[in-house]
């Protein structure tokens, strides 16, 4: 359970300190007040990066030289855990990142699984029919919390991919020769196959909870599945390594001409299927929202089943996107969790049952002094 947070120079906050108890925490205020930024700060401590931007400098308040987020997590039977992420501005878009776990410097990949979160944000309402990168990001975030080494493996793949793409551009510009690709091909096959195998494993584990969650919400809509769509599909008897090596050989000429890697996990996608049909091509908005809600509930169930400890649920202004039946179902789930954070522009938009069990926190915007959090335990 998250017991406290403190912010300095983060987004619209000059300074903030608050402590939290168990149960639902309802964070409300006008648009652009700082509600989403509060949840974003929790994600930064959980993952080492934001779910909203890839540019760390955007997280630093415009008039501040750095941003800092400190959280404390306490769980029965375990020592308290303190997470500290500091971002220091360097130039208009750059910066340095320092991460400490219980005061000890660590890499971002070491955060995986320490503060587990499931995030449900407005942009994820595009999950079914939106860009593939959005779906890959959701799967990667889940895999990093489910498999301890996944964040390290994914980062390694990203580094190899960047180096290989740089070499491919040099080949296209005749500053390098194709025979120089061989060692990078081997590294890409090794790291890429590890990522592929982990993604398949997590999707396999998610399949049962996803069917069950969707049946709870919309039992008459059919059976929901999320399938992995890859340009690296193993043929008979092939491993992921075999398939990736084969596909790299098949696309070698096109890659040298285009200056970029055309196959691998960075090009893959997920498909939401209802009774076998791709929902992106036929499902109504209501069916898509139901599928996305089912996915989030399945994430909760999968992570909870791992060790009996539910993750922290972060709901960023999504109740307005759901019909009354879906809202009621979500409220019942929230009521059964040790802790959850819910943002909304007005408490009147929330289900009365949720308002009855939640602790209300108001975010008060102030351009000069910074956003303030007014609630039961704000400092």
Molecular structure report:
Strand 1 and strand 2 (13-19) form a beta hairpin. Helix 3 (150-172) crosses helix 6 (252-258), helix 4 (182-217) packs across helix 5 and helix 4 (182-217) crosses helix 8 (285-307). This protein folds into 2 domains: 1-108 and 313-379, Rossmann fold; 117-308, Glutathione S-transferase Yfyf (Class Pi), Chain A, domain 2 (Up-down Bundle). The protein has 10 helices and 15 strands. The strands form 3 sheets. It has a 6-stranded antiparallel sheet with strand order 2-1-4-5-6-7, with helices on one face. A 6-stranded mixed sheet has the order 8-12-13-3-14-15, sandwiched between helices. The chain has a 3-stranded antiparallel sheet with strand order 9-10-11. It has 379 residues and is α/β, with parallel strands linked by helices. The mean pLDDT is 94.
């Amino acid at each position: 359970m998250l017991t406290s947070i403190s912010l300095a120079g983060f987004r619209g906050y000059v300074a903030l300190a608050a402590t939290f108890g168990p149960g639902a925490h309802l964070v409300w205020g006008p648009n652009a007040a700082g509600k989403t930024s509060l949840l974003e700060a929790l994600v930064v401590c959980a993952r080492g990066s934001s779910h909203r931007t890839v540019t760390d400098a955007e997280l630093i308040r415009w008039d501040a030289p750095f941003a800092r987020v400190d959280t404390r997590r306490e769980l029965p039977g375990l020592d308290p855990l303190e997470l500290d992420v500091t971002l220091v501005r360097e130039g208009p878009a750059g910066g340095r990142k320092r991460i400490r776990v219980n005061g000890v410097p660590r890499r971002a990949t070491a955060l995986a699984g320490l503060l587990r979160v499931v995030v449900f944000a407005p942009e994820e309402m595009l999950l079914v029919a939106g860009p593939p990168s959005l779906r890959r990001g959701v799967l990667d975030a889940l895999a990093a919390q489910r498999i301890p080494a996944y964040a390290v493996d994914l980062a390694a793949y990203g580094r190899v991919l960047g180096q290989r793409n740089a070499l491919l551009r040099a080949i296209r510009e005749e500053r390098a020769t194709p025979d120089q690709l061989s060692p990078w091909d081997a590294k890409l096959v090794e790291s890429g196959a590890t990522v592929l195998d982990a993604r398949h494993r997590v999707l396999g584990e998610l399949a049962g909870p996803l069917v069950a969650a969707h049946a709870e919400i919309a039992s008459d809509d059919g059976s929901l599945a999320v399938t992995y769509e890859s340009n690296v599909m193993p043929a008979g008897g092939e491993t992921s390594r075999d398939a990736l090596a084969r596909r790299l050989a098949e696309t070698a000429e096109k890659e040298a001409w285009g200056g970029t890697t055309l196959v691998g996990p960075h090009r893959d996608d997920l498909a939401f299927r209802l009774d076998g049909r791709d929902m992106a091509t036929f499902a109504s908005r209501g069916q898509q929202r139901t599928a996305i809600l089912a996915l989030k509930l399945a994430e909760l169930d999968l992570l909870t089943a791992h060790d009996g400890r539910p993750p922290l649920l972060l709901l960023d202004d999504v109740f307005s996107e759901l019909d009354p039946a879906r809202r009621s179902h979500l409220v019942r789930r929230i009521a059964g969790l040790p802790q959850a954070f819910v943002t909304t522009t007005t408490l009147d938009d929330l289900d009365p049952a949720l308002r009855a069990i939640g602790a209300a926190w108001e975010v008060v915007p102030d351009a000069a002094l910074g956003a303030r959090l007014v609630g039961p335990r704000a400092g």
